């Protein structure tokens, strides 16, 4: 399954740090009911602090983030609005909330907060579900699972394989409402979010621009979910009627990673979902009327991904040309796959697909030798590690090293990196919608740390500006409903924008 | 018990002559039986079946007339009556391996794979099965979705009878369904070795190429399969369906639609053909034709969730929202009912 990675600035020194989730040893066989535990430093989660020279130091022990259990994913959010990013680490058998003390250390506050959960948790997202200015927490779980000794795959030496998800029952996600006092209350059922799922990927956006943040759940081998926020603290799954529950043929697929962003600059958040070989990654174009079109074949993504299996995925403008491209971590889920399907591979190179404005083109081969290396890639986080305006990536691999992809794209294109600070809204401004207008047109983005696969990315909002060296206008709709407009902004800078005092507007057009 | 490499028993005149001789040696002088035997040997199975039936009714249980009536009916593909005749014969001849093997075959053709396997098991206890018998056993496991057992028996079948192209074909299907593509390719190549213009095998090679993300080569293969079956009296809809489907995936709708129309023409009772054609019409905004095909698809295959999904999309587009919601609800219901239905071991 692999594990997640987070890119976040835990000490507010302006440089992104890296947090890596790690597993735990498993016996063979492992008795039913076992909750695997980390047995030594080789299984610890890791926090790497970025030093001023761009190198990293391992500060795991100092930070108190060694962790317990078999880790899976990570979510980043300042849940208590104290100005320091906190960490939620999912795992099999119970999750952990680490409060950032603001002094380089973290405290495990799971029990006090009441967010331990149970079962096999995967992706998680911090998002203010009810607009009260505090981040709530959505935690997906994979399936109802235990260490039963099932045999899947052929009964031949070396052919035993992971069981298909159809062997197991789905399970409800966990949804924790932030009580604003360091504790949380589980509200999945009450919020209409308890539909059993096999969730692996989670991404947020206000897809219908009604002023309420919605979210998408990438499910493995069952229908995908699109939870529409009804604005009264409850949600409903509208994936089928919105035509994002299945592919264009009406078939389910192995949804794993997901991102929710406007790739065609029309103001409406689109969706990309990674899946397994022979399924083609799903690209859904938002029609602006509450429905989506499956456009993988039209956009060139279907042909490009037919023989690949994708996990971590993000829309990102790697060349700052004003169009969001796609970076995808790949590798088949079965380590036995090549025995029966020699054309498919457990280890695969990363995929970089450039958005030309008319579709996507595979530019991996022209984008550096790193794209010819084959990995069992899984988690992926995006962020500007060196603050040079070009987005970088960190990728985790199964039983292998982590990879830092430093973006060295040669370009004269301009850029802008926005750091939004909420005051009435949650301090991370997660859920804020940003419209940026230049002479070339508009671009849109939602502030989020969630998406991809089990991972958390830089919360700062990045825009590539192409040839435009100035921005005519930036409009922000804060989660509080407050609208803010900033005019005549210089490109090529990291700009902090604080939420102004004000009265929430009614819904924007 | 020694393994006998017998030829397929239902089609070979040698066996017939032998059994007829046996019948004659038993001094079965009944006129109807003699006449029936003559008609059977001449390939007039309708007349033979009627005469064997008359022979049985005039001397019940005295001859092998019921067995031969069943054989005649098998030739006529009247499996229901063949089963009835065989069951009557077996009542008085419970150890007739010939009748038991034939009943196993008949039950397979009647799409009763589990019952067929039971009968084959009984027959095998009396006489070692031939490669052709094991081919049917393997095909039964294919029908039951038990691919490991299907592969086991079909591998045995081709080992006993390496030139049995039907066994190779089923073996290829089993391997393909199991996702073991190199072995599937090897099996279909064997079929083509014995029958160089076998359109079914070629069509399956197309499926393998599709799985290998080689759509261009797969299309060429489907085209070849279509060309090869041009002279067939009963051409298959499958290569048309597969080629049409691939063209849809490449947004080549104008090329896809005539192929899918041909598939529907060849297999009017096949839900997936109507579904593909309906979906293609829907994507080209031929709404009335799409509606006709998708409604037919859901009628023919009421448990096919993608068909209901496409019909829901269509109703949505023609602003029949209640009907759209009904179809989406049906999709949800089918998925929730059929989820997690895999056995606990594979």
Task: Give a brief outline of the structure.
The complex is a heterodimer of chains A (509) and B (346). With 509 residues, chain A is mainly β. Chain A contains five helices and 35 strands.
What is the strand and helix layout of this fold?
The complex is a heterodimer of chains A (509) and B (346).
Chain A: E1 5-8, E2 17-20, E3 46-50, E4 56-58, H1 60-63, E5 70-77, E6 86-92, E7 96-100, E8 106-108, H2 110-113, E9 121-127, E10 136-141, E11 174-178, E12 184-186, E13 199-205, E14 214-222, E15 225-229, E16 235-237, H3 239-242, E17 253-254, E18 258-261, E19 270-273, E20 282-286, E21 292-294, H4 301-305, E22 310-316, E23 325-330, H5 337-340, E24 351-355, E25 360-362, E26 377-383, E27 392-397, E28 403-405, E29 414-421, E30 433-438, E31 441-446, E32 461-466, E33 470-477, E34 483-490, E35 493-498
Parallel strand pairs in A: 29-35
Antiparallel strand pairs in A: 1-2, 2-3, 3-4, 5-6, 6-7, 7-8, 9-10, 10-11, 11-12, 13-14, 14-15, 14-17, 15-16, 18-19, 19-20, 20-21, 22-23, 23-24, 24-25, 26-27, 27-28, 29-32, 30-31, 30-33, 33-34
Chain B: H1 13-25, H2 31-41, H3 45-58, H4 65-75, H5 79-92, H6 97-109, H7 113-126, H8 131-143, H9 147-160, H10 165-178, H11 181-194, H12 199-211, H13 215-228, H14 238-249, H15 253-266, H16 271-283, H17 287-300, H18 305-317, H19 321-338
Helix pairs in contact in B: 2-3, 3-4, 4-5, 5-6, 6-7, 6-8, 7-8, 8-9, 8-10, 9-10, 10-11, 10-12, 11-12, 12-13, 12-14, 13-14, 14-15, 15-16, 16-17, 16-18, 17-18, 18-19
């Amino acid at each position: 399954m692999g594990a997640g990675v987070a890119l976040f600035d835990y000490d507010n020194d302006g440089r992104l740090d890296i947090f890596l989730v790690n597993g735990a040893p498993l016996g063979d066989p492992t008795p039913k009911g076992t909750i695997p535990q980390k047995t030594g430093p080789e299984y610890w989660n890791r926090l790497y602090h970025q030093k001023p020279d761009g190198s990293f130091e391992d500060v795991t022990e100092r930070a108190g983030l060694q962790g317990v259990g078999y880790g899976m994913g990570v979510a980043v959010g300042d849940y208590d609005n104290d100005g320091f990013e906190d960490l939620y680490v999912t795992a099999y058998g119970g999750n952990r909330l680490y409060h950032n003390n603001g002094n380089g250390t973290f405290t495990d506050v799971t029990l006090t907060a009441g967010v331990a959960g149970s079962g096999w948790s995967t992706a998680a997202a911090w998002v203010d579900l009810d607009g009260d200015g505090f981040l709530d927490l959505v935690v997906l779980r994979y399936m109802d699972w235990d260490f039963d000794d099932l045999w899947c795959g052929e009964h031949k030496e070396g052919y035993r394989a992971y069981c298909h998800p159809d062997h197991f029952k789905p399970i409800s996600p966990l949804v924790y409402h932030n009580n604003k006092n360091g504790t949380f209350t589980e509200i999945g059922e009450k919020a209409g979010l308890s539909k059993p799922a096999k969730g692996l990927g989670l991404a947020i956006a206000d897809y219908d621009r009604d002023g309420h943040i919605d979210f998408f759940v990438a499910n493995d081998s069952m229908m995908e979910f699109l939870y529409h926020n009804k604005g009264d603290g409850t949600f409903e799954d509208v994936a089928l009627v919105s035509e994002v529950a299945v592919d264009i043929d009406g078939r389910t697929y192995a949804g794993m990673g997901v991102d929710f962003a406007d790739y065609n600059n029309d103001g409406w958040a689109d969706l990309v979902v990674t899946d397994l070989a022979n399924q083609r990654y799903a690209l859904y174009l938002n029609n602006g009327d509450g429905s989506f079109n499956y456009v993988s074949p039209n956009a060139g993504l279907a042909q490009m991904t037919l023989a690949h299996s994708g996990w971590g995925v993000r829309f990102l403008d790697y060349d700052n040309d004003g169009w969001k491209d796609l970076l995808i971590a790949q590798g088949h889920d079965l380590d036995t796959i090549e025995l029966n399907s020699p054309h498919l591979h457990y280890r695969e190179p990363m995929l970089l697909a450039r958005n030309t404005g008319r579709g996507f083109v595979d530019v991996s081969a022209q984008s550096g030798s790193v794209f010819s290396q084959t990995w069992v890639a899984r988690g992926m986080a995006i962020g500007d590690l060196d603050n040079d305006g070009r987005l970088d990536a960190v990728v985790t691999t199964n039983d292998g090293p982590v990879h830092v992809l430093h973006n060295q794209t040669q370009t004269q294109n301009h850029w802008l990196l926005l750091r939004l600070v909420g005051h009435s809204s949650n301090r991370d401004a997660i859920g804020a919608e940003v419209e940026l207008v230049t002479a070339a047109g508009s671009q849109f983005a939602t502030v989020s740390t969630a998406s991809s696969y089990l991972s958390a990315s830089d919360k700062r909002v990045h825009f590539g500006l192409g040839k435009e060296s100035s921005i005519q206008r930036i409009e922000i709709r804060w989660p509080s409903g407050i609208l803010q407009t900033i005019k005549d902004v210089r490109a090529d800078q990291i700009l902090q924008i604080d939420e102004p005092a004000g009265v929430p507007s009614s819904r924007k057009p | 018990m020694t393994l006998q490499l017998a030829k397929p028993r239902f089609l070979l005149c040698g066996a017939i002559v032998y059994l007829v001789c046996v019948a004659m040696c038993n001094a079965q002088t009944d006129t109807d039986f003699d006449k029936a035997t003559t008609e059977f040997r001449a390939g007039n199975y309708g007349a033979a079946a009627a005469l064997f039936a008359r022979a049985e009714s005039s001397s019940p249980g005295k001859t092998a007339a019921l067995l031969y009536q069943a054989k005649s009916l098998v030739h006529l593909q009247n499996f229901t009556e063949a089963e009835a005749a065989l069951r009557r014969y077996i009542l008085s001849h419970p150890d007739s391996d010939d009748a038991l093997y034939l009943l196993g075959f008949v039950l397979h053709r009647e799409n009763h794979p589990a019952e067929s396997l039971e009968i084959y098991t009984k027959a095998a206890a009396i006489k070692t099965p031939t490669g052709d018998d094991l081919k049917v056993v393997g095909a039964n496991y294919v029908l039951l979705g038990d691919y490991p057992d299907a592969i086991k028996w079909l591998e045995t079948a081709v080992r006993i009878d390496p030139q049995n192209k039907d066994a190779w074909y089923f073996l290829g299907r089993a391997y393909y369904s199991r996702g073991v593509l190199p072995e599937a390719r090897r099996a279909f190549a064997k079929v083509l070795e014995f029958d160089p213009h076998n359109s079914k095998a070629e069509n399956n090679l197309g499926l393998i190429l599709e799985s290998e993300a080689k759509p261009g080569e797969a299309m060429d293969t489907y085209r070849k399969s279509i060309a090869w079956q041009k002279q067939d009296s009963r051409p298959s809809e499958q290569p048309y369906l597969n080629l049409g489907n691939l063209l849809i995936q490449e947004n080549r709708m104008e090329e896809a639609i005539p192929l899918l129309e041909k598939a529907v023409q060849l297999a009017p009772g096949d839900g997936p053909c109507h579904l593909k054609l309906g979906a293609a019409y829907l994507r080209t905004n031929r709404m009335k034709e799409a509606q006709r095909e998708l409604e037919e698809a859901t009628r023919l295959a009421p448990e096919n969730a993608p068909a209901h999904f496409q019909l829901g999309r269509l109703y949505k587009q023609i602003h029949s929202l209640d009907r759209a919601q009904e179809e989406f609800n049906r999709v949800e219901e089918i998925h929730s009912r059929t989820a997690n239905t895999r056995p606990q071991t594979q």
